[in-house]
Amino acid sequence: MTDMSAVLAVRDLVKEYPGTVALNDVTLELRAGEVLGLIGENGAGKSTLLKIVTGVEQPSSGEVLINGRATKLRGVGDANAIGIGMVFQEQSLIPNLTIAENLFLGREKALTSFGIIRRFERRKLAREALDRVGIDLDPKTVVEDLSFVQRQMVEIAKALLIGESSDHPPILLLDEPTSVLEGGDLERLFSLLDKLRSEIAVIFISHRLDEVLQVSDRVYVLRDGEVVAERAPSETSEHDLHLLMVGAEHSDDYFVSERQRTEFDAVRLRVDNLLVEGLKEPISFKLHGGEVVAFVGTEGSGIEGVAKGVVGILDRASGEIAVDGKTADIRLPSDSAALGIGYIPSERKTEGVLLSLSVRENLTLAYLDEFATRFVVSRKREKAVTREWIDRLRVKTPGVEVPMRSLSGGNQQKVVLAKWLLSDRLRVLVVVTPTRGLDVGAKVDVYDVIRDAAERGVAVLLLADTLEEAIGLSNRIMVFRDGRQTASFNAPPDKKPAPLDLVPWMV
Amino acid sequence: MLVLLVGGVSLLEPNFLNAASLRTLAEQFPLIFMLALGQMTVILLGRIDLSNAAVASFAAIVMAKWIPDFGVVGVLAVLAITTLIGVAHGWLHVRAQTASFMITLGGLGVWSGLALFVSEGRSFGVDPGFASRLFDRTFGIPNAAIFAIAIAAFYAYALDNTKFGRRLYAVGNGQRAASMSGVHAERVVIAGFALSGFFSGLAGLVLISWLEIASPTTANALLLPAIAAVILGGTAITGGVGGVGRTLVGALMIAVLRVGLDVAGIETSIQPIIFGILAVISVATTIDRARLPVIK
After folding, report:
1. Chain A residues closer than 8 Å to B295 by CB
2. To pair with B171 at 20 to 30 A between CA atoms, which of A170, A183, A428, B128?
């Protein structure tokens, strides 16, 4: 760190939303030539901070300084113009355009003569930009033909291009760039960051603490809208950061396996000869009350199809499903819901919650019958039950009538879970990647809720986000590869298989 | 905005706030309001019903033909038929997975054509005894207006407090999430179109009792004003947001505008132009409002 000047700084930043303070007096700085790690639980204020720095939101008070000058950012365009490039979780490249077209999208002006784009020059500049990030791709390639990590690299190249046109080192904001990368791809990203480190300044946001430690020069920890710590990776540890994030020591046992049941109730769900899109041969299985069964497999293994087939989202080519011993005719999710099969989809924002409706309306939607006498819904009952579940699952919300979108991801997920758990009619819970995108504290809360469900006799079919999660939570693991079941493992609390035991059956 | 409109019109034409034009207003309003309520139901689902004015015309003709022989039973039968027409539209839309504007645009052709066919292009007088009952006045207010308000009050309560109403809003807000929560979304959509058909039937009834005459095309011109009323009232074209109260305000605005334009002596041919522009502007502005920044 030769240059200690702050390229980007925020001072006394406050952001208030109706009912909540998202940022409370945040001051931090990003220096030239460093990678700054930014961590915190969902709802800690990371996204809000990013939105302010990119001009998407305006602070209630406080200021943003670029290269030492107080700057008002009115939008992403402003931010780009002064050299801030960003790579968001959701990719921003347009799939049906070429790499070159994407790289200069919106900034074609400098490449235009008499209203016509100088394609060759654009291609040449694109080539150079790609070389800088060290990927060997033809700029004429259409983006939809790229792999995920290639797109990520192109995004970074684009962000760097945006950052170059200024009098200070380009600022690169990386929001969860690694959440979908694995192994070698991850290494490529990190070595790229290392290579570029001296010329740029990076804010790196991730849920994976080990990565943050590996790649950052300094780490800021946010909690409840405040900066609670600033650490150098050499003087801290994952465990340490974790504690700072959640503010209290969690039990060592992440998956609360002391609450895992070892004896089960009768068979709740029986599936015979199920064949759906994605499976190459029919499968059969049973779930007992109180049992958690994890289905694991890589993409293309067919496990998503199993979950969707059971709840009636995907048509079944064959297969008989019985709940509590009674054959069930499931064609639509409304059929499975009526039979007591709850579904937690992986796409929370589009499939799990209705963002514009209130917490109450979201919570009572699945079992509206239980709040109604014939036709009329009792609002009083709804409110009482909503309050009860908000307390029980410690949902952080300003109230029961606020729109769902004002809750953080983890709290939204708790409402999605409560929507099913509130009914005694719940028999089976089909849970697909329930902790995707959640921070550590929210994850543990979700695990707790799943244990609660099992405790009262609900059978849980789990498609976990990670292998560790599948092993940690479940009583039994069914492993799939290429549309076929390849193995089955028991996972009692005292004798969990290791991830490496499972992997050979998956690939 | 409604107050402004009334104020503006009375400023331009001081005669506006006299008894005669207020009476015309009270007579115009129920018709637009009934069509707007039907339209609102499908718009809340994020769909649109381009056929509902044509269905009202059709209903008016068939009612006029049947009332002499069957009386009230004939009216009820026609209401049942228009409801089924709505079911058919909804079912086709859901089954064929075809955009609702396309299905109901086809419906517009079919039902306005059928109205012409059944009537052989002529207008029918309606048994005045029957008509007068609905268009009698209680304390000077046309019964049709009272009837419309009563139905609206009941409907407002139902949308707010019944399981169906809640599911309607859920599907309008996010059909995927609603159906993953166990809502039978397709059924809700079909029911929405059925209600649109039912309200079209009511509009037909209001029409014949007001004019005491049924012509095969009278209601057709009301498609745009009814849509404008819904959107102007503040129901989002994208679905999920809005309600009866807002539509009441919107329908009043449209009615005031129509009567105001008449009173001010503005040519009738200008009116569709105004409603067309109004509908587009109001959609454009509500879309903007729906894009409020995401709060996190």
Report:
1. 17-18, 403, 405-406
2. A428
Residue A122: C-alpha distances to residues A152, A385, B245 (Å) = 20, 60, 56
A45 shares a domain with A127:
yes
Distances A294 to A461, A463, A469 between C-alpha atoms, Å:
6, 6, 9
How confident is residue B287, by pLDDT bands cut at 50, 70 and 90?
A: low
CA distance B171 to A365: 11
pLDDT the model gives residue B290: 43
Domain presence at residue A124 = yes
Our count of domains for chain A comes to 2
- Looking from the CA of B251 toward its CB, the CA atoms found within 13 Å total 29
Its sign, for the CA torsion A435, B293, A361, A387, is positive
Identify the segments of chain A with pLDDT beneath 50. 1-3, 249-251
- Look at residue B294 in the predicted model and tell me its pLDDT: 37
Chain B residues close to A51, C-beta within 8 Å: 296
Residue A22 touches chain B, beta carbons under 8 Å = yes
List of residues 6+ apart from B58 with CB closer than 8 A? B82, B111, B112, B114, B115, B118, B204, B216
Looking at the structure, tell me whether residues A231 and A320 fall in a common domain: no
Cα–Cα distance, A46 to A66 (Å, whole number): 19
A22, A56, A377 ranked by CB distance to B162: nearest: A377
Cα separation, A306 vs A2, in Å, equals 56
Do the Cβ atoms of B71 and B231 come closer than 8 Å? no
Q: Give the range of the structural domain holding residue A441, as residue numbers without chain letter.
A: 257-506
**Residues facing residue A84 across a β-bridge:** A171
Domain boundary among the residues A201, A222, A246 is at A246
B166 in Cβ contact with A365 (< 8 Å): yes
pLDDT for the residue numbered A91:
64
Please list, residue by residue across A294-308, b when 16 or more beta carbons sit within 10 angstroms of its beta carbon and e when fewer do.
bbbbeeebbbbbbbb
How far apart are the CA of A355 and the nearest CA of chain B, in angstroms? 8
Q: Whose CA is closest to B153, among B235, B248, B41, B86? A: B248
Residue B161, number of CB atoms within 10 A of its CB:
16
Same domain, A333 and A238: no
Q: What is the CATH number of the domain that holds A116?
A: 3.40.50.300
Torsion angle in degrees (nearest 10) through CA of A49, A54, A56, A62: 50
B34-47 per-position pLDDT tens digit: 999 999 999 999 99
Chain centre distance of CA A157: 24
Examine the domain organization and report whether A287 and A418 are in the same domain: yes
The pairing of beta strand A61-66 with beta strand A69-71? antiparallel
Same domain, A53 and A147: yes
Question: Domain count of chain B?
Answer: 1
Give the tokens for residue B210: 């007001």
**Integer Cα distance of B207 and B211 in angstroms:** 6
**Among chain B residues, CA nearest to A415:** B181
Q: What is the pLDDT of residue B295?
A: 33
How far apart are alpha carbons B171 and B129 in whole angstroms?
Answer: 44
As a whole number, mean pLDDT of residues B143-160 equals 91
Spatial contact of A265 and A457, defined as CB atoms under 8 Å apart: yes
Q: Is the pLDDT of residue B207 over 60?
A: yes
User: What pLDDT is recorded for position B117?
Assistant: 93
**Cα–Cα distance measured from residue A169 to residue A33, given in angstroms and rounded to the nearest whole number:** 8
Q: Do A337 and B182 touch (CB under 8 A)?
A: yes
Say whether B170 and A333 touch across the interface (CB within 8 A). no
Do A137 and A73 share a structural domain? yes
Cα B41 to chain centroid distance, Å, stands at 9
**Range in A163-167, B10-14, B207-211 the model is least confident about:** B10-14
Residue A20 or B277, more confident = B277
Residue ranges of the alpha helices (H) in A68-118? 76-81, 99-103
Interchain CB contact of A366 with B (< 8 Å)? yes
